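Sorry to interrupt, but I need a hand with the structure work. Please put the record directly below this note.
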Amino acid sequence: MLHRLIAFVGYPAHLLNRQLAGPLGRLGLARVPGALLVGLALAGLAATTASATREAYEARPQALAVTISDIVEGRVGSGFWVEFDGLLIDGPHVATVEVFAGPQSQEVERIYYLFADPESPDQAVVVRAQQNVPALEGTGAAVALHGTITEDPFNLGNVMADWDPASRHPDIRVIDSRLIAYAFETPFVEPTFIGAILLGVLAAIALIGALLRQPILRRSAAGTGARGLTPITLGIHGELATPRGAVQLRGTPAQLEWMNVEEIARTRWRYWGAALGDVRGEVEAAVGPDGGSERLVLHGPTGSVIWPIEDVGRLEIEAGDAFIGARRMAALRVRGAGVAATLTFGDAGLRDAALAEIRAADDPS
């Protein structure tokens, strides 16, 4: 179960490595895991998104501390969310006003209070509430209020004509073009860290997967394989040496088979000729006295790789099961000079047969 879980976590990175291998190879970065670059990019995006979200939280609107005199004398514009102290001098006054909701309008009741500035009692402002606020009534002392400065000349004009606080308080200057919408705050949309968290999770998956060697191998004992099943079809995951340098393979289809040394030499020339130096000498040597002998070769049918297996005694070979995503396949992990790869097979019988052929490669007779 643990191997399946690790393989499942690493599979997205494995896919990224396969898809980005070509473009990175053309840029001279063939050995750089594509998932590593994607993971670093996602981590950067997660960090910048988290930073922007934090800044959005810090930009939460705050009420502006003002006085009623500031509002009456126009030192604070409409639309601001403000907080101030006021002394109730009249109200509550109940009035029916017309409000609009899109193209429709309806009449609703609103409660109006008149508050004076405790420091300048001759200046007052109307405060509108949707319902009675007992905390503002009957205290006889200054109270703390907050709300939004609102332009409502039509309704306020009708309310003032009916209420007429100016006639009852002739010494107080009452502003009749603006009022305070009590307890109405500047709207604020709560930012969310979900985007940053998702990017962080994707970055972690890509970076962790980039550090996992695919496929994941669970070692187990191999059976006694029967020879004579070549050519054996398999997949190569890992690194193989070629005359043009090591190549990274990610599930490349290949075959394990015995080939005439002459054909091996000609095939190597066909695949890699320009990098083989004096290839003519190698071909002539291959068709000499030993031209009829055979060697075990691992090669890609499309000409991607060809690796004659030799010096088997120095190879480290582990048998087991390989996990790639949700797939489980019989496998051999081979490490040594020129190879660090996992070979995957259709079933355990083919794997064991391939192991028997590899072990016989030192003495093909």
Q: What stands out?
A: The two ends are 43 Å apart (CA to CA). The chain has a mean pLDDT of 83. The longest strand covers residues 81-101. Residues 64-182 form a domain with the OB fold (Dihydrolipoamide Acetyltransferase, E2P) fold (CATH 2.40.50).
